[in-house]
């Protein structure tokens, strides 16, 4: 056994470090690959992530499938309204909710501390999480659009605007998810806190029902969820391009989340 | 960065959590290729000291150098992590990956890792490569944890209570592995509650109590126990009293006890005396204070602390 140890030490010495940039990208690819592997191996997380939004569209389709264009839904049919808002909901769920809960649990279990003890740079770890969240969101949206099509909702026309909104939204809500995970002290409280913030916010932002109050719409317009709903509804149902004002509000919230996350994030289960 | 003989140098280390002075004045060194054990009761400051060296906690005062780097310095943190490995008390691994995947993932984080298959062999997980982590036994998970500490081919390895919960055979295997790693040039700093472990593994031990180093040295000499008087005890042959023996002694419950600075001579006189009379010295033992006796004496509440207490902050 001793000779094996000694042999590997000799052969393990590198010929010279490869260029830094290539190494960073390869490290990121490595990290994304194993994040994906852990995710897809866990049947619960994989199934619930994708089943919930699909079931939600199916239910909404069953309830409102026959409701045509109406002023109640802002001049859209019910399903034209719900397909983009449920798409937004699924992005929120995987980027903000699940990420906050998963990070709090990983910290409590010591997984984050173990990662922190390796040379993996923090930004690579978080970039790996973001890439995972974007991928999950893309699959979710594809499923939701597919089910919507069964109820007669036409495919959206502005895919570029949707992708831009999706990536910006995923990044912003990931940053907010990490921020919430940074502020929550223990993993048991994480799901409750994350939902406590999210549920009322989604309600007043028109995720479940169109909001008819101009005041409420104005307030919600400065919070992160409604701008995201609106920014997705435009290219999904109104044949509009990117809504820059909504995207700016979303980006501003992402920055707030990022600042809190950078300042407050802890890797160690025990407080300093 | 400068070269030096010690892998770890700590001096006057301090750390408080609010009103709790976890580490008050800790100083010690670990030479390259040495195995050093931090001993002490719960709350003595072992883990906090280790976490400061690992870069998880900032120190309030004192100096610390690990492999010639300051562990509190952010700019060199990544370089330091390339060269140190650690095995934590808690098992922290993703449950749905296999053994091989878990180790391969960690290997990808290092510039020059060891081979995945080789490390699996080193820690004795050969044959379990394709098993999901969640289906491993507690002992197997600890071995996986050890594999993660070794995969980066570290110059310095931290082991936080490495064999807690191991059965005796697994503990022997782990000790053997640690010795082999040291033979190969690795420096090892470990914490333990287990005196036998400290005695079996460590070149030197550092005994902490209430955030202060109360003793340091080779396990055989800790607290001056090698200079303590030896105790020779045996059952008195029938019909004799302690006064009949050729050396000063006392007796209790039929056992004669001789305390002496010169056990070689005393034993010679005693065995000579017994053989001359056709008796045996039944139950003969020669003892010095054990490492555990010294440990309990030095960490006893209210025991005098040799290092001067300083005002924190």
The fold-level CATH name of the largest domain in chain B is Rossmann fold
Average pLDDT of chain B works out at: 87
Largest beta-sheet characterization of chain B: 6 strands, mixed
Strand content of chain B: 25-35%
Largest interface: A-B, 33 and 46 residues
Subunit organisation of the chains = heterodimer
Q: In sequence order, what are the helices and strands of chain B, one letter per element?
A: EEEHEHEHHHEHEHEEEEEHEH
CATH architecture of the largest domain in chain B: 3-Layer(aba) Sandwich
- How much of the sequence lies in strands of chain A comes to under 5%
* Major beta sheet summary of chain A: none
Order of helices and strands of chain A: HHHHHHHHHHH
Helix content range of chain A = over 70%
Q: How many separate domains of chain A?
A: 1
CA-based shape of chain A? globular
Structural class of chain B: alpha/beta
CATH C-level category of the largest domain in chain B: Alpha Beta
How does the overall form of chain B come out from the CA principal axes? elongated
Q: What Rg of chain A is obtained from the alpha carbons, in whole angstroms?
A: 21 Å
CATH superfamily of the largest domain in chain B: P-loop containing nucleotide triphosphate hydrolases
Could you list the spans of chain A in which at least 5 consecutive residues all have pLDDT below 50?
A: 1-19
């Amino acid at each position: 056994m001793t000779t094996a140890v000694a042999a590997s030490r000799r052969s393990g010495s590198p010929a010279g470090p490869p260029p830094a940039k290539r190494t960073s990208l390869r490290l990121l690819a490595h990290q994304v690959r194993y994040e994906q592997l852990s995710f897809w191996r866990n049947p619960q997380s994989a199934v619930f992530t994708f089943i919930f939004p699909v079931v939600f569209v199916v239910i909404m389709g069953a309830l409102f499938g026959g409701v045509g264009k109406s002023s109640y839904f802002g001049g859209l049919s019910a399903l034209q309204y719900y397909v983009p808002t449920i798409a937004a909901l699924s992005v929120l769920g995987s980027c903000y909710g699940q990420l906050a809960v998963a990070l709090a649990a990983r910290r409590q279990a010591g997984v984050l501390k173990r990662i922190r003890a390796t040379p993996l740079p923090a930004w690579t770890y978080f970039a790996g999480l973001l890439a995972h969240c974007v991928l999950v969101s893309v699959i979710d949206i594809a499923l939701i659009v597919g089910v919507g099509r069964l109820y007669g909702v036409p495919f959206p026309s502005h895919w570029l605007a949707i992708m831009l909104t999706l990536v910006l939204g995923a990044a912003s809500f990931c940053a907010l998810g990490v921020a919430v995970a940074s502020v929550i002290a223990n993993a048991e409280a994480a799901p409750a806190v994350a939902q406590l913030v999210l549920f009322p916010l989604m309600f007043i932002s028109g995720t479940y029902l169109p909001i008819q109050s101009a005041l409420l719409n104005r307030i919600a317009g400065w919070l992160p969820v409604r701008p995201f709903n609106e920014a997705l509804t435009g290219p999904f149902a109104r044949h509009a391009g990117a809504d820059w004002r909504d995207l700016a509000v979303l980006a501003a919230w992402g920055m707030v989340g990022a600042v809190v996350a950078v300042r407050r994030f802890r890797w160690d289960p025990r407080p300093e | 960065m400068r070269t030096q003989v010690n892998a770890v140098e700590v001096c006057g280390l301090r750390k408080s959590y609010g009103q709790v002075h976890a580490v008050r004045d800790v100083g010690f060194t670990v030479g390259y290729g040495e195995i050093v054990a931090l001993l002490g009761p719960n709350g003595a400051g072992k883990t906090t000291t280790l976490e400061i060296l690992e870069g998880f906690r900032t120190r309030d005062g004192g100096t610390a150098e690990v492999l010639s780097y300051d562990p509190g310095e952010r700019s060199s943190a990544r370089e330091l992590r390339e060269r140190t490995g650690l095995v934590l008390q808690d098992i922290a691994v993703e449950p749905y990956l296999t053994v091989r995947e878990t180790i391969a993932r960690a290997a990808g984080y290092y510039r020059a890792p060891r081979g995945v298959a080789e490390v699996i062999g080193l820690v004795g997980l050969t044959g379990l490569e394709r098993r999901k982590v969640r289906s491993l036994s507690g002992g197997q998970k600890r071995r996986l944890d050890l594999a993660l500490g070794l995969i980066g081919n570290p110059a310095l390895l931290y082991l936080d209570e490495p064999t807690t919960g191991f059965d005796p055979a697994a503990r022997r295997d782990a000790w053997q592995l640690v010795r082999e790693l040291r033979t190969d040039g690795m420096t090892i700093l470990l914490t333990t509650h287990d005196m036998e472990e400290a005695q079996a593994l460590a070149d030197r031990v550092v005994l902490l109590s209430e955030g202060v180093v109360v003793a340091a040295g080779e396990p055989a000499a800790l607290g001056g126990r090698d200079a303590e008087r030896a105790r020779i005890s045996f059952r008195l042959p029938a019909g004799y009293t302690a006064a009949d023996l050729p050396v000063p002694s006392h007796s209790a419950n039929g056992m004669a006890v001789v305390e002496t600075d010169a056990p070689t001579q005393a034993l010679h006189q005693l065995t000579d005396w017994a053989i001359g009379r056709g008796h045996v010295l039944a139950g003969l033992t020669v003892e010095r204070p054990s490492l555990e006796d010294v440990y309990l004496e030095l960490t006893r509440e209210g025991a005098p602390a040799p290092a001067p207490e300083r005002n924190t902050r």
